[in-house]
Structures are given as C-alpha cells and as structure tokens.
Amino acid sequence: MADAPVPTQDATSAAIQFRQRLLKGEPLIGTFLKTPSAIVCEVLAMTPLDAICLDAEHAPFGRLELDACLMAMRAAGKPSLVRVPSSEESQLLNALDCGASGVVIPHVCCADQAEALSRAARFGRGGRGYAGSTRAAGYTTKSMKSHLADSAAATSVIAQIEDVEAVDAIEEIAAVDGIDCLFVGRIDLTVALGAETPNDAVVVEAVERICAVGKAAGKSVGMFVPRVEDCAQWRERGANLFLLASDHSFMLQGANRLVEEFAKG
Description:
The chain is an alpha/beta fold. The chain has a single domain, classed as TIM Barrel (Alpha-Beta Barrel). 46% of the residues lie in helices and 15% in strands. The protein has an eight-stranded parallel barrel with strand order 1-2-3-4-5-6-7-8, surrounded by seven helices. Helix 11 links the parallel strand 7 (220-223) and strand 8 (241-246). The protein is globular and about 55 Å long.
C-alpha cells in the first residue's frame, strides 16, 4: 500500500486552492463525515480526498464537536466544508469562525435568500460579524487586513438545491453573486417532487436542469450520487463537485468486505 500523501499547505492556502478549483469547474471529490470525532477527521485528512464535509445538518454535531473537528482538519491542511443545520446566519458565522473552508447551506429556495446568505458568509456591509479572536483569524495573530483578504479568497459558499421552489427559481439563484456552487440535494428533491426513487424521470429532469442552468451561469455544480461510476455522466452535464459516501459507509463496506474475504478462506 502506498504511503498516504503528507499535506504541504497551511489551512488558508488549502482553502484558497480548493475554492479556485471549485470556481474553475475542476473535478473535485470529497465525502461526508457523520461521526463528530476529531480523530476520524484526522484519519480522513490523510487521504487524497479534495475536501471533507462535516454533516452538521444530519449528524449530532454540537459546537464543541464541530470546533474540534475543524481544528483537526486545519492542522492537517485539508479543506473542510460544513453542511450547516439550517440557513440561520449564526450557523454560518459559527462554522466559518471555527475555521471551515466553506459552508453548504440547505434548502436555499430563492434569489433573495441566496443573496442574504452570500452576504452573511462574508465580511462587508451588512455581512458577517468580525472578530479577531477566532481560530479563523489566528486568535488575534492576524491583522484585520490579512484576515479580510484571506477570508474573501478562501470562503466557499455552496447553496443546496433540494426544493421545488428552488428548481423553479434556479436561474435567479444561479445569477446571485457570491454563490460559488449549486449543490443538488437529490434525496430531498425526490421527496419534494413526490417521486418514488431518485432515478425517476421527474427527478432526473430537475437535476439536469440545475446542471444546465449552473453551467450557463458559470457556476460550479455539485451533488451526491450513490455510485462513483455515476459521476462521469453528470460531469458531462456540468457537475464537478462530488461528495460521495461517508465515514459510516466506509466502515460498513470495510467490515462487510472483511467478513466476505474471511468466509472465502
């Protein structure tokens, strides 16, 4: 087995590079973290994944667990996204102050909401509140000028599209300055559309529309798909950010494979 790659960048440089690649539409692969453990973060940060997304929407992350996980990710120089529990501005502020490279915001349904969230994730008039005492600001060791510049370059803002209203307003959402990526919440979209499976025609058509609009607007498009083999067809349609599987699925697959191999012998 080959040695794991050793991170060579600091957290800020890694976040800036990740956002640059995201905006250019380069193919990116990451995974979800469901276990609120800094140790699991540390282990996954040793892999060549482009980013780890801490799923604070659907997993039991408290503020201290989130803080510890982001500390581990930053120490390893691995870009970290946080899927926040809600679109409340305080959730974005907490994740970014703790040092997240970016935020994945659930249930973005209209342009006005997208504009408000884009402002809330960034410093500036009417935007994110400033504190120089945070991890992101180096615990007062960075000047305000440096922290503002680094944050502007490094913070990725990803709007999750998973409601019928969002699909109806996708052109307006995609036109919002500061929304870096449209991330398809395909399972919630399946439920919202009244479909039986994510592969039903009505769902596929909606996903194709999001991809087409995102591509036309020059926006990155991301999604979860159940199989890595499915990525190629969606890359052809304009998607470039794929968050697949999770630490839970890695454990289940590894344990099942071990038992299968043991049974053969």
